[in-house]
Amino acid sequence: MPASEMRRRARAFRDLMLRRRTIRDFASRPLPSGVIEDCLAAANSAPSGANRQPWHFVVVTDARTKHAIRRAAEEEERAFYAGRAPNEWLEALAPLGTDAEKPFLENAPCLIVVFAQLRGVDDQGAILKHYYVNESVGIATGILITALHQAGLATLTHTPAPMRFLTDILERPSHERPYLILVTGYPQPGASVPDIEKKELESVTTFR
Hints:
This protein is an alpha+beta fold. It has helices at residues 3-18, 35-43, 63-84, 87-93, 104-107, 133-150, 164-169, 201-204; strands at 55-60, 110-117, 119-121, 127-129, 154-158, 176-185. The strands form 2 sheets. The protein has a 4-stranded antiparallel sheet with strand order 1-2-6-5. It has a two-stranded antiparallel sheet with strand order 3-4.
């Protein structure tokens, strides 16, 4: 690829990603068929420790299941905001305007619940050790967020703590643990985002 084309692509991708913002106000508008599947296929291409791909994605669009997830998540969030979280953490969250109410878990058309697999099972039923699980799942999730943004969808990463209720609601096996909920869909008309800035590249990068 010519150097000029490399620079053009890098700048175009930079500009695309600089427009990405996390939102909390989602429209209920349904998503086009196949978009989520293609974005998940991109995420599934992520590098992973020993190529074990220690992740599992559960796509939730069923209204009853989303309602159950919201109820369980808000129960944990109320405990978090009512005393579980230290004041320092709550002060850090204050500019984002978050609280224990999570209507986006029902309003958004799609929740992608990412599970990290602590171990795997081969075709013969033997246990497989997984390596660098957190790093691998984090990379795959980052690619998924990027793919959804590229497709024109907004996202929100939601991590209520603890998240074990997701294992029960979604009937996942014990060797998987919930990693995060990725809320995705279209922004609600008039949706707002916090007035925040990212660090300048120079402050997070060293060239030697």
